[in-house]
């Protein structure tokens, strides 16, 4: 009997749960509950991302693609504007050059028509006898002649220097040749018709006689 009673006490002792203080067990239970709640919340977020994520990504890429196309269009329009501005600037410069060229051609044409009038003034005044040079008519003609020369000078028309200068085919047109020891080599000895330049451009070459 005693052996059976002792064996029964030993079995009860073996199956007895260990004693745990109330405070520690409560904290462990609360911690486990927090971990489980966090895991559940994280799972919900993962599921939500799994449900909504692909749509949001697709929308993001669509916005980015739309923005890229918009930037490309802006760059294209900017490039077109720059090209048009450059073309317009070239057109403006070309037009100004053509206008200047047309003005030069027109002015040169008018000057060429005026030069024979000046030649006639010079011939007429040169033919006046010495005793008549003080007549009012001759003095008036001389003043008109000088006024024309002054006006031409103001717009850039100037006579070409010839007599005593070295012959220059760019400005002189030699029609005669003479041997003259008093003059240097290749020197203009006489001018038959006066030449003129307009803004560095020859309107009419001087017709001259060249010595030696």
Put the structure in a nutshell.
This protein is α+β, with helices and mostly antiparallel strands and 212 residues long. The protein has a domain at 92-211: Nucleotide Exchange Factor Grpe, Chain A, domain 2, CATH 2.30.22.
Strand arrangement, major sheet: 1-4-5
**Which fold name fills CATH's third level, the topology of the domain at 92-211?**
Nucleotide Exchange Factor Grpe, Chain A, domain 2
Distance between the termini: 171 Å
Question: Stretches where pLDDT falls below 50 for ≥5 residues?
Answer: 14-28, 46-52
Summarize the helix and strand pattern as letters: HHHEEEEEE
Structural class: alpha+beta
CATH top level of the domain at 92-211?
A: Mainly Beta
Mean pLDDT: 77
* Record field, number of beta strands: 6
As a percent range, the share of strand residues is 5-15%
Determine the fraction of residues in helical runs and give it as a percent range: 55-70%
Largest sheet: 3 strands, antiparallel
Please state the second-level CATH architecture of the domain at 92-211.
Roll
Organism: Hominisplanchenecus murintestinalis
Protein name: Nucleotide exchange factor GrpE
Describe this structure in words.
This protein has about 210 residues and is of the alpha+beta class. It has a domain at about 90-210: Nucleotide Exchange Factor Grpe, Chain A, domain 2 (Roll). It is about 65% helix and about 15% strand. The chain contains 3 helices and 6 strands; from the N terminus they run H-H-H-E-E-E-E-E-E. The protein has helices spanning about 1-15, 20-125, 135-155; strands at about 155-160, 170-180, 185-195, 195-200, 200-205, 205-210. The strands form 2 sheets. Strands 1-4-5 form a 3-stranded antiparallel beta sheet. A 3-stranded mixed beta sheet has the order 2-6-3, with no helix packed on it. A hairpin with a 2-residue loop joins strand 4 (about 195-200) and strand 5 (about 200-205). The radius of gyration is 57 Å and the shape is elongated.
């Amino acid at each position: 009997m005693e052996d059976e009673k002792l064996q029964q006490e030993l079995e009860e002792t073996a199956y007895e749960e260990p004693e745990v203080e109330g405070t520690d067990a409560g904290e462990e239970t609360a911690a486990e509950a927090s971990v489980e709640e966090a895991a559940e919340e994280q799972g919900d977020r993962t599921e939500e991302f799994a449900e909504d994520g692909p749509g949001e990504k697709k929308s993001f890429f669509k916005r980015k693609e739309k923005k890229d196309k918009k930037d490309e269009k802006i760059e294209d329009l900017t490039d077109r504007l720059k090209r048009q501005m450059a073309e317009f600037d070239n057109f403006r410069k070309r037009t100004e050059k053509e206008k200047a060229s047309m003005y030069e051609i027109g002015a040169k044409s008018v000057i060429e028509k005026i030069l024979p009038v000046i030649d006639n003034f010079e011939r007429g005044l040169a033919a006046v006898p010495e005793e008549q040079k003080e007549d009012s008519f001759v003095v008036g003609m001389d003043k008109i002649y000088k006024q024309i020369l002054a006006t031409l000078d103001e717009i850039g028309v100037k006579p070409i220097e010839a007599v005593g200068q070295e012959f220059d085919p760019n400005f002189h047109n030699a029609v005669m040749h003479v041997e003259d020891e008093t003059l240097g080599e290749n020197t203009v000895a006489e001018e038959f018709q006066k030449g003129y330049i307009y803004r560095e451009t020859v309107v009419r070459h001087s017709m001259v006689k060249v010595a030696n």
